[in-house]
Structure formats: structure tokens, C-alpha cells
Amino acid sequence: MALLQKFSAFNKAAKRRIFDHRVIISHSPKSLFFTCIIFSSISVFIFLDSILSNILLHSSHSKNIDFFTTRKTNNKAKQTFDIDRTTLLLSTQDKVDNDLVVESELEETNDPLVPPEHVSRQERIAWFRRKLPELHILNSNSLSKQFHRRVLEFLSGGCSVQFYMVWLFPAKSFGKRNLLSVESLFKAHRQGCLIILSNSLDSNRGYRILKPLLDWGFRILTVSPDLPFLVNNTPAEAWLKELKSGTKDPGAIPLSQNLSNLMRLTILYKYGGIYIDSDIIVLRDFSKLRNVVGAQSIDAVSKQWTRLNGAVMVFDIYHPLLLDFLAEFALTFDGNIWGFNGPYLLSRVITRIIRSKSNGYHDFNFTIFPPKAFYPVHWHRIERVLKKPKNETELRWVEQMVSELNGRDTYAIHLWMKRSGDCKIEEGSVVARLILDHCLICNNL
């Protein structure tokens, strides 16, 4: 209690001294002058401190953008990733505009390529015309203009075989099964190269997703595609020009699907190699294949193919059949029918070639593989090979299927993600067994 009383007395005395000091100041002109000087100095100091703090905060924010610095060397290639505030040094030693990289990192919102539902053709065209400024994929920019140089530099490093994928979705959507596809590709082609055409994966996030495989030394290039360059001097150039004019109906199907159909044809035409979808599990070496497309289905009686598919295609550079495919795409484009500009397109063109008065497809020097090569399991049966066996009979069937699919006539299996994406790959299933045989890291099952 005594201590409390002493503290109270001390507090009152202190207040009295402060009050007395203010009284003295208020009655002294000289003191008042110096007081004004002091308060003015303090105000200026606070103002300058505020400005400095904002500058430092902005600088700190710039420095803390989640970029990366990685250095990795292997026997085949050296990949260097260096970052400062404004430039990103990619594996091809490209200086990329920082704003574009950040934009691709943040571009994880609704896909502007998905049209509205239940609208008329004219309403959809009007919608598309309004959306055109957002559709950066249709135009060149400072990053995509480096596409050709980056691809050539990457391929000049030497590849036993060159693969391509197209990914026009957000980077975060590139999931475990897509990574399994990449793993299986390199399990069968240790010295191969993979180029992924993708704005979203050509980013820091894309690097992080693929880092486990890059750390193994596998050669992967994610590159923002330059669509105007890819269609230049092809029959599809006029199609893109019309689309960008805002007078063409993009269709009810998401445009990304049809742009993927177009890009796979143009990348094969201009560079040659092997295109595969990102839901393909590679089972065998492709390096000896030349100018090949695969049948998706055959007639049960005649044994003739009834539908081709472009999920796997192998072509030499500038192959004439690819030009026919591109001409068909441009002339008959219909964005309202799923597959019309993809599997149906390949089927239409090759059917015409075979039925023509020439010597058929032998003049074009290509081969049609049966379904068991790339599509051994039809899309409407895919769920069965994802389920574990429940009894001895099903176990024997699984073992027989695995043995057949690992045989010499099957190069890959299509997982048909549009159909099976929500289905779990169960332990002991056909697909689980295949993945264990053909994965590298094997933690994405």
C-alpha cells in the first residue's frame, strides 16, 4: 500500500511538472519560437520517414516475389535458373519480362476460352468479340516471340527423340496423372526431350511442378506458344485471322480444346517428332516409329478401323499429310461438336485419301496402327482397369491384361482423363500395376 501511495504521489508530481512546463512555454515568446521550430522539424521527419518506409516496403515486396535460383549440372545438360527483380533466366538462357512471368503465375482464374452456355450463335459471337482482348493465347507478345529460338536452342542440345505436349489450362491443374505421363515418357526414353507448349507452365509454378523430374536431369522445356508464328504459311493462318476479327463463331466447345488440336498439328509440321496427350502412359520405346497415327476403334466384323485419334501422332517435319489436316481444320472448323476438329478430322481426311483414285495413303508414306498400339482400352471401359480385383477371377484378368499391355504390340495406354479424371487408381488395378512398371519417382499414384 505504501509503495502504491509513493507511486501516486510521484505521478501527480510528474503531471504538475509537465503542466508547469507548458505554462512557462505559453508565456515565453522565445520558447514558443523554438517550440514551433521543433514541431516543424518533427513533422518533416515523420513525412520523410513515411515516404522512405513506403519505398522500402515496395522494394521488399519486389524482392520477396517467390522466384527461384537453382543451379543443376548433369552429364548431358546444364540448366541454370537465376532471378533478379526484373528478369528470369530460363534453361535456354532467355531474359523474360518479369511482368509476363508474374501474370502467368497469377492467371489461375476462370478460363476465358470457355463460352457461356445456352446462348444463340450470334450471342456467342458477340461474347467472343468482347473477350478477344483477354485471349492472349491468340497473339504474340514479348515472351511468346522467343518461342522459335527457345525451341531450336533446346533441341540443339541433342535428343534421342523429341516429344511434345500442349497444356492450355492453369498450371495448378497439371496433376499427378499428368506427371505420371511425363515420368513414363522418360522411363522409356532416358535421352529424350519433351517440349510442353503452355503459357501457365512457362513460369515459376510450372518449374516447381516439374522440378522432381528436372532434378533427375531429364530435358523438359515449358514454352509459351506463339500461335501466329505456328500457323504462319499454313492453311490455318487465314482461320486464325478470321477468328481474331471477331466475326467467327468459336463454338460451344471450350476453344482451348480446339486450339490444342491446332497446335499439335502445327508443332509437328514445323519441327517433326512425336505428339502425345498428357494423359498417355508410355509403355514402350517410340524412337523407331515414323509417320504413324493410331486407330481408336475398329469394326468387329470387317476389322477395318472406324475412328482415328490424334492423342498420339508421329510425323516427320513438313509431312504433307499434316498440311491436309491443317487445311481441313481451317475449311471445316466447327466448334460445336466435340472431337470434330480432332479425331473426326483425322478420320475424314484419311478416309478421303484412301478412297481417292491415287494409290491411297501409300503416297503419303504413313501407317495406321491398330487400337492396341495406343488405345488398347476404349474410353467407355477405362474405369474397369482402374479398379482393384475383388476375387481370384478378376485377379487373373488383371494379370492377363498387364501381360498383354506390356507386350510388344502396345506402345501406350490412354487414360481418357475426361472420362476417368474423378476415378481413383486403386491399388492392384491394371493401371496401378502398369504405373509401377513404368514410373520413375513413383509417388504420384
- N/C terminus separation: 72 Å
Uncertain stretches: 1-33, 46-109
The amount of beta strand, in percent, is 5-15%
Mean pLDDT equals 81
**Shape designation:** globular
Separate helix tally:
16
User: Could you describe the largest sheet, including whether it forms a barrel?
Assistant: 7 strands, mixed
Using the CA coordinates, give the radius of gyration: 31 Å
- How much helix is in the residues? 40-55%
What structural category do the secondary elements indicate?
alpha/beta
| Total number of strands | 13
User: Reading side by side through the largest sheet, how are the strands ordered?
Assistant: 7-6-5-8-11-10-12
Q: Can you offer a commentary on this structure?
A:
There is one protein chain. Helix 10 (255-271) packs antiparallel against helix 11 and helix 14 crosses helix 16 (430-438). By secondary structure, this protein is of the alpha/beta class. The chain has 16 helices and 13 strands. It starts with a helix and ends in a 7-residue tail after the last helix. The protein has helices spanning 2-26, 29-63, 98-106, 121-131, 147-155, 176-188, 204-214, 227-231, 236-244, 255-271, 320-332, 343-355, 371-374, 392-405, 417-420, 430-438; strands spanning 70-73, 78-83, 87-89, 95-97, 162-166, 193-197, 219-223, 273-276, 280-282, 292-298, 305-315, 367-369, 412-414. The radius of gyration is 31 Å and the shape is globular. It has a seven-stranded mixed beta sheet, with helices on both faces. The protein has a four-stranded antiparallel beta sheet with strand order 1-2-3-4. Strands 9-13 form a two-stranded antiparallel ribbon. 45% of the residues lie in helices and 14% in strands. Helix 7 links the parallel strand 6 (193-197) and strand 7.
